[in-house]
Amino acid sequence: MTQQHPMAGGPDHAGAPETRRFDFAAMDGAARYRLLASTIMPRPIAWVTTCAPDGTVNAAPYSFFNFFGADRPVLAIGALARPGREKDTAANIRATGEFVVNLVSFALAEAMNATCVEAPPEVDELALAGLAAAPSHAVAPPRIAASPAAFECRVMRLLDTGPGQLLVVGEILHAHYAERVLRGPPERPRVAAAALDLVGRMHGASAYVRTRDVFHLERPVWPAPAGAAQAASPDAGGGAQTAAAPGR
């Protein structure tokens, strides 16, 4: 029988596996966040650098992040407010329309965590974390020099999705990759996932994952040839993966 949360509606369809349904309209934001952030994971981390109108550099990590197209190249970030006021990243993006997304390798995890601090707007988190900056090509915010990949972005859309919630959609203007993470000929480079050694966000206040536990599934074709079904093959070494077809 389906169990019910105190704030839930009635049971789900009879005969379905045992579940508990949560009525989000009857729950507060903290309870919804606790469920969603502990379920939708691992999440990639956008380590966002921005500049205030006076030139002060800000750096902060956001795990509500992904890319959403390549023609145009588009990524999006969800920025939640701190109690009482908008976060510096969101305020700077509103003011300037520019930002850089830096990816977080395992070697940079401690430095990334240092930039999570709720510092005043005048504090440069890169300096606070002992990180060197590198100039961007087309936007004012700098890149994090040690990041294995960074994307210079210009705002396409800003969408206020709720109290203190800002969805930032940006076009990627330039990408910077560390030479050590690239393989193959210069005219057709590929990214070595193991060399990136990225971390992702997990559940709770402090849980992360290292993205090296990889397995492969061949995408099926229609009609499927006889005997084509293949089992997943574990790849604990986290080697470079083949590019996924659109829609994966």
Structure description:
It is a single chain. β4 (46-51) and β5 form a beta hairpin. This protein has helices spanning 29-37, 88-96, 109-114, 125-128, 193-196, and strands at 3-4, 20-21, 43-44, 46-51, 57-62, 65-70, 73-80, 98-102, 133-134, 143-144, 149-162, 165-177, 182-183, 190-191, 199-201, 208-210, 214-216, 233-235. The relative contact order is 0.14. The strands form six sheets. The chain has a seven-stranded antiparallel beta sheet with strand order 5-4-8-11-12-7-6, with helices on one face. Strands 3-15-16 form a three-stranded antiparallel beta sheet, with no helix packed on it. Helix content is 13%, strand content 34%. It is globular, with a radius of gyration of 21 Å. It is mainly beta and 248 residues long. It has five helices and 18 strands.
Output the keywords.
248 residues, mainly beta, seven-stranded antiparallel sheet, 5 helices, 18 strands, 13% helix
Distance between the termini: 34 Å
Question: Mean of the pLDDT scores?
Answer: 88
Strands in their spatial order, largest beta sheet: 5-4-8-11-12-7-6
Low-pLDDT stretches: 236-245
What oligomeric arrangement do these chains adopt? single chain
Please, how many helices? 5
Helical content (DSSP H or I, runs of 4+): 10-25%
Order of helices and strands: EEHEEEEEHEHHEEEEEEHEEEE
Structural shape: globular
**Helix-strand makeup class:** mainly beta
- Radius of gyration, CA atoms, in whole angstroms: 21 Å
- Please describe the biggest sheet, giving its number of strands, its sense, and whether it closes into a barrel: 7 strands, antiparallel
Give me the count of strands: 18
Strand fraction? 25-35%
